[in-house]
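Lab notebook page, bench 4
Experiment: in silico fold of construct C2
Operator: M.H.
Input chain length: 994 residues
Purpose: comparison with the prior construct
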Amino acid sequence: MRAVTISLFGFLLVIAATIISFCDGNSNVLCIESERQALLKFKQHLIDRSNRLSSWVEGEDCCECLGVLCNNLTGHVKMLHLGLSSPYEDASYAEWDAYVGSKLGGEINPSLIELKHLSFLDLSNNDFGGLAIPEFIGSLKSLTYLNLSSTNFQTAIPYNLGNLSKLHYLDLGHNSFFEAKTLQWVSGLSSLQYLDLSDVDLSTATDWLQVTNKLPSLVELHLSDCYLNNNDPSSITVNYTSLAVLDLSSNMLSSIPTWIFSLRSLVSIDLNSNAVEGVIPNGFQNMSSLKFLDLSWNSFSPSSTLSWLSNLNQLQFLGLVYVGLKGNFSSAIGNLSSLTHLDVSRNGIDQEVSEIIESLSRCCLDGLESLNIASNKLSGHLPDQLGQFKNLAYLSLSGNSISGPIPFSIGKLSSLKFLYVAKNRLNATLPQSLGQLGNLEHLDVSNNMLEGNISEMFFSNLLRLTVFRASNNMLTFKPNPSWIPPFQWKSIGLGNWRLGPQFPQWLQCQRNMWWLDISHTGISGVIPTWFWNLSTSFEYLNLSHNQLVGEISYLPGSYVTDLSYNLFTGPLPRASSDLNFLFLSKNLFSGSLSNFLCNSSTKPEALGFLDIESNLLSGEIPDCWENQRMLEVLNLGNNSLTGKMPRSLGSLRNIISLNLRKNNLFGEVPSILQHLANLLILDLSENQLTGSIPAWIGDKLLSLVVLNLRSNKFQAYIPDQICALNSLQFLDLGYNNISGAIPKCFCNLSAMATIRHYGFLAGFGVAVGPGNIFYLGALLVMRGREDEYSTTLRLVTGIDLSVNSLTGEIPKELGNLKELRSLNLSGNLLTGQIPENIGNLEVLESLDLSTNRLHGEIPSSFSNLNFLNHFNVSYNNLTGKIPLGTQLQSFDKFSYIGNLLCGPPITKNCSSDGETPDVTNGGSSEGRHRSKVNWLYVSMVAGFVMGFWGVVAPLFFIRSWRFAYYKKLDHIGDKLYVFWATIGIRIWKWYSML
């Protein structure tokens, strides 16, 4: 994509480096003996885990060895190419592991000094374990090419590299060098054409601009991620006579340096990932030679105009990712006649997608090769005009609001290799013409509204397709059981398709598969044996939310395996030692955890996530967690585990979420858990734990976001140390035996008091494989019901102290928790009045103060609680009028029952002066008091009269009624006598048997 940034010289060097990766088999000249011995000595000090240098042996011609190239005439070693090429971004974990395993390590022996004629040395992408660059490399005076990039060299750059006056190419980038305070040593490299010092800390090297400006032959300068800022001396006149490529990306520039606009010969400028603010300057309009411009990942003003783009008619690559573009964009690109690559993803471009396609068709219909407009606000339908871009190889429109069908003309894009239209509103079905794209390698149509049946013929011409992601649509694919796919897919995403009920037989032919998602697909029955015997080990396997049954003995997955929400039975399966994410929740696995975790021959050693919630596990939690030092999330909730919490849980120093809820654990919380300093979520609810709430929770677990100890047998007081948990968002101590007062210091729980701003997804997310995010979840009781919160967990705040024995008054300090969304203090012995400032909790959604001993009125400030959807103050001693407000009248009378309240929504009207009769506290004057007492007596007399004349009088004067009444009493008496007599006899018999 960035071929325009490579000078002709650099391009030739890359070609040469590729050619010399193999020995020159046509050479008839044997290498010099002293140089052969030097190479063997060099090999002896290297660590070669993959045996790359197996051809470097005693007695062999070194000119025939891998990575060695000799001069055909003299036999002198002139090139040594031991660098590696890193895998593509979409490579499998196995390919990445193979790449890492191929890295050379160890030390670089000074024997290389014997190679007097060495002009080319490439050790890039190896790993020398933090050693320093050997000083002797500065003595290799014949070097014209030196590449030590990404080799894990550290400490300082040796200044004697400045002695390599013949050097044309120097790449020291992407290492961990110490801060370089000066670049004066570079001034000796008078022949230098290519310089890459990326990742070198140049924050104090104020001479970098002056020194590099004086290199007469410099063509390419790469200073990415060097901590550069805008403190360069403005007095320096910059001319860079030969500079064509300038890379200042990933620095700390707050504005674009003005001296850049004076370099009219530049063909490539990369300023992405800085801190540039303000409008995009118009200075670029005078740089008519530009072919590559990347301003991505900066904070430009939305008011920036792009009219200057019209002058850049040689521009081939334009990167404006996440720069704050708004509104209409199509008019700015109409004159970019040479454009081949356009990336304006992650902005706020708000217009019809057809307008952008039409504008591009006018300027660069035949030249456009890559188009990325993902994650904007595009709407409308994809036009048929899209099929006219004959050279388009990469197209990404994901993450917009594009609707309608995929146009049939898509089948005309014969050069297309990558098509991403995920996360839109596309409907209809996949057009048959899409199956004609014989060069297509990656296809992602996931998270749309596509529907219909997909036939076997659709895939017949997609022979090069290796990645097919189409999950979360409404598509159906049920090929003939004997169908043999013509492709070999590496990555398959068919989640939410209709594939079942039979297990897909065609998967049996996929031997290169490492990523598979067939969750929510309606398949049932037993997984075929051949599936577990596929030659490739799964790195991502998702079979969740089906009706699969049977036992599983072994899981071959090496990174992520999700079998949750099925009907698997039997003991927990053995897992591969390098499995990292394992999800087995909502199944019927039984037995103990011990064999799975503690067996030295079968235990998984790299687990980061272990979720076995809601199974039938029994026995004690095993005491062997010291073997799981990498574990970050552990969920054993809702099983039948018993016993005490094992002390070895304290060895899980990396754990961020520990869930042991709804088991039968007893005893106290072991103090060794105080070492779990990274915990965000601790859920021990619904067990039989005893003792007091540990004070060390507040002293040591300072990162806690959720603390749930609900439904246990904790006693004593709430420790004040809990108030030190500044990150705590949800505290649930309900249904225990806690006594004492509510701590006033709860007002220090700052995460419940401060307004926080989060992005699009507000959960605690962890990447689980490519394109998948696992969000930490928690089951929390809010609004009177229990719900699971994951993607929105950061937005949830609440305190639940219900059904305890708390006494005293409700602290008015709770009114300072302005971000509190749920407060439940019901079922306690709280007294006093409801604090007026509780009404200041304006985002409160749930408030339950029922079943206490509160008195007084409901504060008038409660009328400000506009977001309440759950409210209960029943069974207290509250009096007075219910405040009129947006929400309080929307709840039924049962939210107020058991008080002496009046006004809507209860039917009891208040008196004209707004007061309700208050027998408990009396009135405010003697007259009012007398009036209330008189009405009480009147009602008593009226009740007596009605009772007497309605019941007693008829019995006295009407004989038939009197006989019927006493007969009924005799009948009831006989029944009671027989009942109690029978009970007595049974008790006597039971007692006689003792």
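Observations: The first strand starts at residue 46 and ends at 48. The radius of gyration is 38 Å.
Next step: discuss at group meeting.
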